[in-house]
Amino acid sequence: MTQPRLAPKMGLLGNGVIMMALIDHMKKELSALKPSDILAFNQEISQIPDIIQLTLGEPDFNTPDHVKLAAIGAIQQNNSHYTASAGLPGLRQAASDFLFNKYGTRYDPATQLQMTAGVTEGVYATLTAILNPGDSVIIPTPIFPLYIPITMLNGGEPVFVNTADDGFILDPEKLAAAIEAHQDSVKAIVLNFPTNPTGVTYSRSDLEKIAAVVRGKDIFVISDEIYSELTYTSTHVSMGEILPEQTIVLNGVSKSHAMTGWRIGLVAGPADIMAKIGMVHQFMITSATTNAQVAAEEAFKNGQDDAAPMRRAYIERRDYLVPALQKMGFTVAKPDGAFYVFAKIPDRFGHSSWDFARALAHEARVAVIPGASFGPGGDGYIRISYAASMDQIKTAVQRIAEFMAQHQ
After folding, report:
1. Are strands 157-162 and 186-192 parallel, antiparallel or unpaired?
2. Orientation of helix 172-181 relative to helix 204-214, angle to 10°
3. pLDDT at position 10, please?
4. Distances (CA, A) of 99 to 28, 109, 265, 294, 390
5. Could you tell me where in the chain the CATH 3.40.640.10 domains are found?
6. Above pLDDT 70, what percent of the chain?
7. How far is it, in rounded angstroms, from Cα 145 to Cα 367?
8. What is the per-residue pLDDT across 8-38, written as a single tens digit (0 to 9) for each?
9. Quick one: which of 313, 315, 346 has its CA closest to 329?
10. Residues contacting residue 263 through CB under 8 Å, at least 6 positions apart
11. Per the confidence metrics, is the pTM higher than 0.90?
12. What is the DSSP letter of 156?
């Protein structure tokens, strides 16, 4: 019987050297990045027995039945082939109608709408289409960190504007100063509202002041409005209505219809700009999953108010959680949307949100996200997701209160 030949030791060493050389030849921007803090921390503490997870932005509701039935029907009818890269015509029409009926924005479904594999792909396709190496992107923080690595992967430079002293709203004077300081390189600004991680949202007046700063400049406004249907105290106002000629709007069904895993988002904007974003989308994924598109069409067309019961539940949870945290000594910016509380840690615990979150996880068995994960202005805070049952929230509040009392 022939014995397998072993590679010479020198060959193994040589392979290792080659591997290191290949890694060194990979995209240089990756060396400046690390995996998601949020996902890494969630995995780190998930092994703690009986821990209550108030970490990820995952609605605890099920996708509405009429949406699921539409997807089942598509599968049974063998609707399993490629669609147009921009998405099913019926889905684009339904999405266009939804955006107009809800927010008064008008987008031609044939030329101004692109369906994507979730808003994450929409952000990547958009930034890839507009950025050249050396361009700057103004990012108000604290903010969901996705925009930062995608900017860097495309050779761009994130320019942070800390909003912590301004009620977590981008101050137009600070925006103007950031544009002036980077006037030779600024390509875009990012807005995300209602905001992850703070739950704060922008009023029409806020948006008009921002629009006044950038109007007429060759600067894109990338407006991520995925939480638009979870606005609590007033009707959501889209930046696409205020500044349509410069704004690229991102939205989808993940939060409004509890469809995070279906991965259907949308990008909307001026036709010529959307043609370029659509090209990047084609090169990335060809088209979004067909039966998921059918489900999203049903959601936009016949589920325009599906978010209403979720919104009521989130408001009830917020109204229980915020005063409970304030009573314990946290300072909280009251959320006006989404399903997050961004709570400032009492001074006696120091400034490290990582130390506090780890202690809370191991001692109180409550998992939250350290505020430092969300950029400048975030350290010293924790983000608590209340996309969890009221029973879980009440138990978590009891455990946090006991932890705080033990650390007087």
Report:
1. unpaired
2. 20
3. 46
4. 39, 11, 13, 18, 31
5. 65-302
6. 97
7. 19
8. 454 555 677 888 888 888 888 988 888 887 8
9. 346
10. 117, 118, 121, 254, 288, 289, 292
11. yes
12. -
Structure tokens at 186: 């600024």
pLDDT digits (tens, 9 = 90+) for 315-364: 999 999 999 999 999 999 889 999 999 999 999 999 899 999 999 999 99
By three-state DSSP, how is residue 159 classified? Answer: strand
Run of H or E residues at 343:
strand 340-344
Q: What is d(CA 375, CA 145) in angstroms, rounded to the nearest whole number?
A: 7
Cα–Cα distances in angstroms (integers) from residue 262 to residues 21, 198, 254, 267, 276, in the given order: 39, 25, 7, 16, 25
> What are 85-89's contacts with CB under 8 Å, separation 24+?
85/278, 85/281, 85/282, 85/286, 85/287, 86/113, 86/114, 86/115, 86/278, 86/281, 87/113, 87/114, 87/115, 87/266, 87/287, 87/288, 87/293, 88/115, 88/290, 88/293, 88/294, 88/297
d(C-alpha 358, C-alpha 189), whole Å: 33
Q: How far apart are CA 152 and CA 161, in angstroms?
A: 17
Handedness of CA 320, 323, 326, 330 (dihedral sign): positive
- Our CA angle for 224, 230, 232, nearest 5°, is 120
N residues, the chain: 408
Helix (H, G, I), strand (E, B) or coil at 365: coil
CA angle 101, 106, 109 (to 5 degrees): 100
CATH of domain 34-62+307-406: 3.90.1150.10
- Report the CATH architecture of 65-302: 3-Layer(aba) Sandwich (3.40)
What residues does CATH 3.90.1150.10 cover in the chain?
A: 34-62+307-406
What is the arrangement of strands in the sheet containing 331-332, beginning at the earlier edge strand?
Answer: 331-332, 340-344, 381-385, 369-370
Give the angle subtended at the CA of 111 by the CAs of 109 and 113, to the nearest 5°. 55
